[in-house]
Every structure is written in structure tokens, then in C-alpha cells.
Amino acid sequence: MNVFNIDMGTLLIVLVLGHILTGILIISYTVRHNKEKSVNIFLLSKLFQSVAWIMLGFKDAIPYIIWISISNSILFIGAALELIAFLTLVNSYNKAIKRNYNILILICIATFNAITIYSTPENIRIVFASTITVILISFPAYKLFRHKNPSVLQKVIASFYSITMVSFLFRAYMALTSAHDMTLWSTNIFNTGSFLLLYLVMLVGSIGFILLAKEKLDVELVKAASLDELTDIFNRRTFILRAKEFISLFARKKEQISYLLIDIDNFKRINDVYGHYIGDIVLKEFAGAIKAQLRVYDLFGRYGGEEFAILLPGTNEKDSIEVAERLRKTIENTPVSINPEIKYTISIGAVTLTPDSKTNVDMLYKISDNALYMAKMQGRNRVVRFQNAV
């Protein structure tokens, strides 16, 4: 018995139910949450694909040309919307891509309908339908593969879409060169295999989208828990946790580290004179300017208010002073973008030491805080080192 001798009507029913149940599950999962744009697009794609497969199951109830034209057009739109949902989810669907991809969809659908209206032989229609599917899938699959730091899940989804493209190219080839019937209701091994793959892709696409959305949410939650909301640098808790790791590492290596505690001079006056909105802009731009001057592996965090800390791994006293002075001068010479008349300065307390088993972040903070206090007492806008800590 041929295991691929599967009734195509059964496959259609399974495809329709798969799309409908996926939509129901996603709606149930997100009913108490604000749906992302990508989720709404994905739900719409499930609706279009369900309608298309239902229409394809009623070929005798609809005039042939209308049946072929409308059902396939809806199916193309549904497939494209699913792919657009993935692109939107991974933030790869900007205005330029949206415009070009939408034009591509319209061209593909118009081409297929022109071929259908002019009563082109069925094998040619199959070739064009298969080719259009490949065209629509190729760019999203590429973007999922080439996305900045793609996750394993993204690569797996892109791989399945790539396999689908190969399958449809093979179907197009078979429609052109083989004597096998490659129409929808054909049960030969090639056609049945293609539709079984469609079913698997439907499963992978549906489950993959849900998991990818969950993965994105997890990343955002970790980011929200780790970063200061206003300045987008480490919050106090995360800075201390990361600093502990560096202290432990450099204690084992017996190498120096430097710690800088920074305070924005007279920040309260900025808030009082210009308002808290300007004050927030100052904090954002300050964090951006400082971060741009640091190495990738330097730690930079906000302790609270206008107080910030920097840990410089493997940095000796001389180099840390150079870094601190460079940061001080950068801020001194950088006016606030929204109002260039607003200028401000910073004071920095610094400490450099070779950590041991007794060294901790709280110790570094207290020592540098004493140095910062001295900087304030000496007139602000300066770097002061706690000498006895070396």
C-alpha cells in the first residue's frame, strides 16, 4: 500500500482546521494583553488562508475561472501576511521594505490572474503559482536568517521556509517536465508530499510564531529588568551584579580595576530652572555621551538620580585618570541638544586597586564617594582620586 495515497480532501480539512485553531489559540493567549501589530497581522493571515483553503475545497460549487483566481489570490495574500507578521515581529518590516514587498505581492497576484484569465494550460499555472510562492517566501526567509544576532528559533523557522521553497521549485519543475498530474486533487507521491510539507510548514509557522513572540517578550522583560528605563544603561542592581563578576575575575588574575563615581553638578538647578522634561533629556544625553567614550566591556550604570558609576576592568591609575578627564571634558563641551545654551559639568571620584577576596562593590562605592565629595568641595567639574586606596 502506498503510504502517500492520502485523500486530498482530508488534507484540506486538516489545513483549514490547523489555521482556525491556531487563530483561536493566539486570541485566547493574548485576550488579556495588548496585541502587538505582528499578532494582528498573523491572525489576519490565518483568516485569509482558512478562507482560501475552504474555497479550494468547493471547486464544483464555483465557476472554474473564478474559483482558481479568487482562491489562489486569497491564498497568496494569506501567505504573504504570515511572512509579514514574522518580519514585523523581528523588526525587519520598515517603510521601504513594506512598500516594495506590497508592490511585489500585487505584481505576483496580477500576473497569476492574467495567466488564469487567458486560459493558460494548467501546468503553466502550477509553475507560476509555485514560483510566486517561492518569490514571496524568499525575502522573509533571508531576513530571518540574516537578522542581527538571529536566535536558533529564527534559523529553524527560516530553514523550514527554505525547504518549502525547494519543494515548490521541484513542483514547478515536475509540472513542466513530468507526466504526473500535479493538480490540487492529484494523489501522486510528488503532489501529496508537497501538501504534507505545507501542513508541516503550517504547524512550524504557527508554533514558531507563538514561540518567537514569547522569545521576544522574554528578551524585553530581561532588558526591562536590567536597564534603567530613562538612560538605557544598566540599572543599579544589574551594575552591581556584573561588577561582582569582574571583581572576582580580576582578583583571580591579580590585575587592577578602576571605579569611577560620577555626579552631574548642580543637577537640581537644571530641573528647577528648565523643568524635569529638560532634566530627563540631560540625563539621556549624558548617558549617551559617556557610553560612546567607553569600551564595549566597561560597565556603566545609573545608581539613582544624577549619580552614575563606571567600572573599568584591567585599567591602572594613570589610564583611569585619562579616561575620567576625557569624560569630564566631553560633558563640559557638549551642550544640551534641545537648548544649546544649557551647559553642565560633572564631578568624578576615582579609585584604582587590585581586588582580593575582601573587595566588593560597596567598598569601591564608599571610597569613590569620598573622592567625589572632595571634588565637590574643591569647586566641582574635576576628577579627584582617593590616593590611599592604591
3D structure, described in words:
The protein is an alpha+beta fold. It folds into two domains: 8-225, Up-down Bundle (Rhopdopsin 7-helix transmembrane proteins), CATH 1.20.1070; 236-389, Reverse transcriptase/Diguanylate cyclase domain (Alpha-Beta Plaits, 2-Layer Sandwich), CATH 3.30.70.270. Helix content is 66%, strand content 8%. Strands 2-3-1-4-5 form a five-stranded mixed beta sheet. The longest helix has 38 residues, at 189-226. The relative contact order is 0.08. The mean pLDDT is 87.
SSE map:
Layout lengths: L7 H23 L6 H20 L7 H26 L5 H23 L4 H25 L5 H26 L11 H38 L9 H18 L3 E8 L2 H8 L1 H18 L5 E6 L2 E7 L3 H16 L13 E8 L7 H17 L5 E3 L5
Parallel strand pairs: 4-5
Antiparallel strand pairs: 1-3, 1-4, 2-3
EC number: 2.7.7.65
Keywords: Membrane, Nucleotidyltransferase, Transferase, Transmembrane, Transmembrane helix
Protein name: Putative diguanylate cyclase YcdT
Assign an overall shape.
Answer: elongated
Please tell me the total number of domains.
2
SS element count, helices = 12
Low-confidence runs of at least 5 consecutive residues: none
In N-to-C order, the SSE pattern is HHHHHHHHEHHEEHEHE
List keywords for this structure.
Alpha-Beta Plaits; Rhopdopsin 7-helix transmembrane proteins; membrane; 12 helices; EC 2.7.7.65; Diguanylate_Cyclase; alpha+beta; 2 domains; 5-stranded mixed sheet; 390 residues; nucleotidyltransferase
